[in-house]
Amino acid sequence: MERKYSSRERMLTALENKKSSYIPCSFMIFSALEEKCKDQFEFIERQLELGLDTKVELPELPFRFHPEVKVKEWKQRTKSGYLLHKEYQTPSGKLNSIVRKTEDWPYGDSVPLFSDYLAPRSKKFLIEKKGDLEPLGYLLGEPPAGDISSFCEQANKLKRFAANKGLLVSGGWTYFGSEKGMDEDAGTMGADALMWLLGMEKALLLAIDEPETIKELLRIISEWNMKRMKVYLEEGIDLLIRRAWYESTDFWSPSLYRKFIFPVLKKEIELVHQAGAKCGYIMTSGVMPLLDDFLQLDIDVLIGVDPVQGKGTDLKLLKERLDEKICLWGGVNGFLTIGQGEGKDVEDAVDESISILGPKGFILSPVDNVREDSERARNNIKTMIKTWKKKLCEMK
To answer: CB 252: neighbour CB atoms within 10 A?
Structure first.
């Protein structure tokens, strides 16, 4: 009688690029379903009902400031609307930011430290010069004992649930709604934080004009990052996920990536491997010029392989270059193919991705999110899962 493997075993087989007749299907982000669930346990159960290889995500550690930091916020009326001001008073000086409050601003009259909403709306970013780096250190505090204790308590419940269901456990980044303290966009990160603190234009200009400032800023972010990573890793997770949407060649040239991002990322990945975990790297576009770098970094899985909106993504070349070395996670576009496409589009996308990226070292997923809760999107999700299961039967 053939042994039945757990979902965790199937996922680990894919992450380790080992031969398998079973290609897992695990959604990167599934907001359309998540928003209907009261908690992560229900969210997982409903994915299991669909037959998906869902992972159990440990909660985010809240972001905390140094206890001596004082925060002041106020709103300024202008002819065109409102400006939101936020000032951080630290023992090493003040930092302040100014944001235009637009109709779609989701944070009321408050300004988070990290958020995608900051980049196009910031009139003044928090960091402008080298002298701002010392005060920043007071905002990127070490997780306090109380937060770690609360995290461990929640993690233990989730790990027991994962063990009972035979599911993979991940940490470092989660899209499931959890308490993030003072922030919105969270997770272990590098240049994502850089872009929110400096702005994209300023970050890239400083990389040319003041390279030591960017190196120091990334070092500060990485040291803070690694303190948080250690808490996740001490829980014995299977996979540490590191966000890197803003580290691709859509923003950085390959030479700048190697100069600034590669060195700090290498240390973080080594930390993950020393703990016996796999390292997942989320980059959904602009990946092709960095494939040799990914191999040198010893990344275990590239999360977010998008054949439609991933600029320049070539599935065949990607598989050829990374085959048996780095697992690939994705293969189907979430926004256009699943959210807006026809059933035949979905069938073709699933068939193509499995044919090219499988059978080993591949995890199927829409990239990067399924937000739409329309009848079309729901039908396309069913079509995707049905097509995936059909392909699995053909592979046996």
So the answer is: 22
